[in-house]
């Protein structure tokens, strides 16, 4: 196993330095494992030299000499040399690499500033990213301004027209005016008043407080996400967010009917069933969502007796009314406003008036005076028994309760702020200057003129259910008992389609009305008048639109309920889905026989919706209808608020029907609102 040692050489003066080595054979490999040195002496026994040569024998039989000191020969070899001599180079390299990697990871995650100082590497901000990558055209972190002035240039748009732009020679960036981008890409944006409320609150930037911020928005519309499964006895969709009466296309709230009068397609005003139903459903939903109202009882002729200012020519008394089995107040005044009996009031927050009223003569009226706390201007609301909707004479605003109000007890509920606001808007040429704030008004007095009776005068912050039942009663009294529909009394023109004559029915209006009546039936404890009207309202869903109903077919296969029963069919999406909700409401609320009929129509519509839904997907938004298929024209793209309505409706339906198509489509359409697009080929 071991070979004999070999003489390596003799010094010039006879001293011999001898090196020995040993070869170890193991697994057919040879290794040099031991190196020794020695020194021979002359005849006198003295060392012949202070130094000698050491020889290192390599595996390849090459010999290298190395000098070392005499002191090193006497002492033991240093520990470091022993470690090096016995070290496995391969293991050492692996350990070194592992140490470097471990150290780098620790520094990267726990001490990033040590590796990447802020002044060396730009911080990441996803607001500056383009297609999930970094935008190299942004200068630094946005805080450093360009040293060179921007150059005026001309932007040549699609080789059709030009607009003025700016160019930076420093970073070769072109700056395009947002006024152009707004219309070109149909986006919006606004400079924020402060920079502390970030659009992306999860982004921390040390310079946020120093930099102005421009809020870019692809869509300003809001998607309403359901908080739970849709409940036919609860809120209707997301309608607690609706304030129908404040819409500009609402002329006023009728004092005769207690429902909105629309000017959407006729300036003089008319009763629009769809809008009336939305008014009712909004108040029903608000009644559930809002806390209990604050109510101030001004007069009930029993426990709460007000002080009435009575002129000499007038009188007022409390009498027993056998019909109501309670005490009411009777009054009689001379002609002229100064003769009215009046109660002084100073109420600010409670602006919804409720009163039981019977007017005996055509000259009788209810008057309410309100005052602006800012301008001290007074406004007088007159509620009179006349066929008048709304009239304004300076600061006197008149609402007609209809001639049928004479000699008839009525319970009226009026939002005094809305009545003042609508009166000012109708009598002003500069509508924007006529608006006042709700908290600006307070009620000064309530007065009665002529001859009549009244009882139960209250002021409250709101009275949602009174408005709801006013609308429910309207649907009972204005239903066409022959067709079961609530006709629209104005003509309607849709571009490319034949004109809809006055009296046309709408599936959306029918569905909304059924949703109102189903809830009125439930909330009233089972008043069958509401159930009967709702059941009769199903009839138009089974009659073709060409025959006066709302039923259409797509490709002679899929049944559709038309919001606008046009020729050819238009297939409006949002109105169709609202009609489905009405059918679902009645199916879930009515007795079995009626529920079965409503359920059949609902499932028929849901089947068509699932088959046709993707026809409305444009890859970047949705279509309002399918006129591009019916008429062969360009698509009628849904604007932002209608697109958001489509998304909200699908999310709501997904709580009723578990088909993943509804949720998946809603999420994709929701992404379009943030600039996402369908993939191209």
From TrEMBL:
Key words, A-Z: Isomerase, Membrane, Signal-anchor, Transmembrane, Transmembrane helix
Domain spans labelled D-glucuronyl C5-epimerase beta-sandwich: 325-450
Location relative to the cell: Endomembrane system; Membrane
Any one cellular-component term (Gene Ontology): Golgi apparatus
Reaction equations catalysed: [heparosan-N-sulfate](n) = [heparan-N-sulfate](n)
Primary location group: membrane
Gene Ontology biological process terms, A to Z: heparan sulfate proteoglycan biosynthetic process; heparin proteoglycan biosynthetic process
This protein's pathway: Glycan metabolism; heparin biosynthesis; Glycan metabolism; heparan sulfate biosynthesis
Domain of life (superkingdom): Eukaryota
Enzyme class, first EC level, given as a word: isomerase
Membrane topology classification: Single-pass membrane protein; Single-pass type II membrane protein
EC number of this enzyme: 5.1.3.17
Transmembrane segments: 92-111
GO molecular function, one term: heparosan-N-sulfate-glucuronate 5-epimerase activity
Domain D-glucuronyl C5-epimerase C-terminal per the UniProt entry, residue ranges: 479-670
Recorded family membership: Belongs to the D-glucuronyl C5-epimerase family.
Record-given protein name: heparosan-N-sulfate-glucuronate 5-epimerase
Upper taxonomic lineage: Eukaryota, Metazoa, Ecdysozoa, Arthropoda, Hexapoda
